[in-house]
Specification:
Layout: H1 29-38, E1 48-51, E2 58-60, E3 70-72, E4 75-76, H2 100-104, E5 105-108, H3 112-121, E6 130-132, H4 142-146, H5 148-158, E7 163-167, H6 176-184, E8 188-193, H7 199-205, H8 212-224, E9 229-232, H9 245-254, E10 259-261, H10 271-282, H11 287-296, H12 316-332, H13 344-362
Parallel strand pairs: 1-5, 3-6, 6-7, 7-8, 8-9, 9-10
Antiparallel strand pairs: 2-3, 4-5
Length: about 375
C-alpha cells in the first residue's frame, strides 16, 4: 500500500543534511502536518535555475568503474529526480542538499561551450572521448530552455572531436541533425538509460523522466539514422527491476541497440538516507525486503566503495543478475559491436588548420 504523504513529482522526499555544512535546517513533520490541515503551502515544489561560472568544464574521471576517462556536465543537479542517482552526493560540494535541492536547484553552466572550445584549442590537449552527462543528464528539462548541450555538440563537430552522450530524455532527438554529422565521421555514441518496462516503476523511481515508450522510440530513431546506441539498463535494483533485465535487453535489441550495460545499485553517501526514506513512503510493503536484498549484494551493507566490485555487487543475488546479463548478450546481441570512436580526425583538423594558415601567408609574399 502506497503512503499518501509521498511528494508527487519528486524522487527524494526530504532534504538531507549536507555533510559539509555546520548548521542544519529541518522542516519538522508536525509543521508539515499543520500546513496540510490548514491548507497552507509548506513547499512550492518549483525548480530554480541558478547560473554558475566554473573555470573549467572537462573533468578527468579517476574511477575505473564508469567506463570513461573524461566527462563534462552542462548542468549540476537534475530535475529528473531519480531517487537512486549517485550524482546527488556531488550537490553537497556546491552547498546544497543531495535530497530535494538536487532536483529543484539546478546549476546552469552557460559558458560550457566556450570553456569546451578553449580546452579543445589547447596545445596540450590530446583527443580522447569526452562524455556529456558523466554526472547529471545533459538533456534534462533545463536543456530545452538553455540549449547548452547543443552548443557543445556544435563545438565537438567543429573540431572533429569524439563525444559520448548519456541520457534518459527523448530531447536528444532534437539534435539529430548534428548527431548525424558527427556519425558520418564516427565521432559520437549515445547511451540511452532505460531502467524498467513498467510505467508504474518508472514513475516511482524516476518521476520526471521521459516515458519508457518514448525512450524506446529514441533508441529506434537514433539507430535507424546510423547513430550507435548502447542501452544503460542501470541500476538493477533487487526486488524492484532486476527481474526485468532479460526483457529489457530483448526490447532494446529489437529497437536497434548495439549493446547494453548495467550496474547493481549501491546507496553511497547521502543516497542511503534518501532511498531508505523514499522506499518506506512509496513502497512500504516491500521496503524491508528490497533493502535486505541490496545489502545482500554488498556484504551486508547498502554501499560498497571498493573499485571493481562496488558497481558489480557480489553474492548470490548479484550473481543471478550477472547470469541474466550473460544470457541476454548471447541471445539478443550476438555479433553486435558498439564502434570505437575516432580520435585521429581531431589531429588532422589541427594540421589542416596550420597548413591553411601557411597557405594564406604566402599570399603576402
Amino acid at each position: 500500500m502506497k503512503n499518501k504523504t509521498v511528494l508527487k513529482g519528486r524522487g527524494a522526499q526530504q532534504n538531507v543534511h549536507n555533510r559539509f555544512e555546520r548548521h542544519v535546517y529541518e522542516m519538522r513533520d508536525d509543521f508539515l502536518e499543520f500546513c496540510r490541515i490548514e491548507g497552507e503551502a509548506a513547499d512550492q515544489n518549483k525548480t530554480e535555475y541558478i547560473p554558475v561560472f566554473p573555470k573549467t568544464i572537462v573533468n578527468k574521471v579517476t574511477s575505473p568503474d564508469v567506463g570513461m576517462e573524461f566527462s563534462m556536465n552542462p548542468y549540476q543537479g537534475c530535475e529528473h529526480g531519480c531517487v537512486y542517482c549517485y550524482a546527488r552526493n556531488a550537490h553537497e560540494f556546491w552547498g546544497y542538499s543531495a535530497g530535494l535541492d538536487f532536483e529543484r536547484k539546478i546549476l546552469v553552466k552557460k559558458d560550457a561551450s566556450v570553456l569546451l572550445e578553449a580546452k579543445l584549442k589547447s596545445k596540450r590537449w590530446r583527443a580522447q572521448t569526452i562524455v556529456l552527462s558523466g554526472n547529471t543528464d545533459c538533456y534534462q528539462p533545463a536543456e530545452q530552455k538553455f540549449m547548452i548541450t547543443r552548443k557543445c555538440l556544435e563545438v565537438f563537430l567543429k573540431y572533429r572531436h569524439p563525444v559520448g552522450i548519456i541520457t534518459k530524455n527523448a530531447l536528444v532527438l532534437r539534435d539529430l541533425d548534428i548527431l548525424k554529422e558527427l556519425t558520418e565521421h564516427q565521432l559520437v555514441g549515445v547511451n540511452v538509460s532505460i531502467t524498467s518496462l513498467s510505467e508504474k516503476t518508472r514513475r516511482l523511481l524516476e518521476p520526471r523522466t521521459t516515458t519508457i515508450k518514448k525512450r524506446l522510440e529514441t533508441v529506434r530513431v537514433l539507430s535507424e539514422n546510423g547513430i550507435p546506441v548502447n542501452a544503460m539498463l542501470a541500476p538493477m535494483i533487487p526486488g524492484i527491476n532486476s527481474h526485468e533485465l532479460l526483457s529489457l535487453a530483448k526490447k532494446v535489441s529489437e529497437h536497434g541497440a548495439l549493446s547494453f550495460g548495467f550496474t547493481v545499485v549501491r546507496l553511497n553517501g547521502a543516497i542511503r538516507q534518501i532511498f531508505t526514506d523514499w522506499i518506506k513512503k512509496a513502497m512500504p510493503d516491500s521496503a524491508d525486503k528490497v533493502l535486505h536484498q541490496i545489502q545482500a549484494c554488498h556484504g551486508g551493507s547498502l554501499n560498497d566503495s571498493r573499485f571493481g566490485i562496488r558497481s558489480r555487487g557480489e553474492g548470490h543475488i548479484a550473481q543471478q543478475i550477472h547470469d541474466m546479463a550473460r544470457l541476454a548478450r548471447q541471445r539478443y546481441f550476438k555479433d553486435r559491436v558498439f564502434p570505437k570512436l575516432r580520435t585521429d580526425l581531431y589531429t588532422q583538423h589541427k594540421s589542416a588548420f596550420k597548413a591553411s594558415s601557411k597557405d594564406q601567408l604566402r599570399l603576402f609574399r
